[in-house]
Amino acid sequence: MLKRLQDDIIACTRCPRLVAHRERTAIEKRRQYRGDTYWGRPLPGFGDPRARLVIVGLAPAAHGGNRTGRMFTGDSSGEWLARALFESHFSNQPTSTHRDDGLALKDAYITAAVRCAPPENTPTREELAACRPFLVRELALLTRALVVVALGKIGFEAYLAACREAEVEVPRPRPAFGHARTHCLPNGIMLIASYHPSRQNTQTGRLTAPMLSAIFESARQIIDTPRRET
After folding, report:
1. With a threshold of 0.90, does the pTM exceed it?
2. Domains defined for the chain, CATH in brackets
3. N or C: at which end does the chain have fewer Cβ atoms within 10 angstroms?
4. Mean per-residue pLDDT over the chain, rounded
């Protein structure tokens, strides 16, 4: 069950470096959030348990999800993602500011490769591997998924690694990451790659709002197109 998985994620202490960083950040805080009580723990995924769209990101932001207790919430990346999801009718509002802000995802579920905020937003290979079983369990429980949107190369590679670990066939040659590239996997999932809505990408123009919106419009079209029974 998703609830049991979420409880297991929140209680996780597998990676000493990540534990130290998330807890130190929650104590030191950023000046503008000095009055906030930081979450400071691993973050479970959230959204519609019957989602046909699954979004795989990188990891919680130190002063975003690690502060608010919900992925893609309370930071610039969350603002970009929330707006794009709303525009494509996957949510009820265009903002994601705090855990109790009323945001409800519709037919969508958000998760990540790593559940703790990593230093410099860069998890190690070992940390990615330690967190992977959570993603494997999560994907197995999201039985109605038709489309996976991977935000960033790490999210893309994490999803493919989770497929391999779950003994789900991965095509050969192996799918390559590239913005707006779509791959039809043997299990019927359509995997759509997107640049991550990080400040590094959005402030340089590598990713624009129309580009991100187009990703989720593509997901919407795939989901809303009737599939022939075979």
Report:
1. yes
2. 2-224 (3.40.470.10)
3. C
4. 96
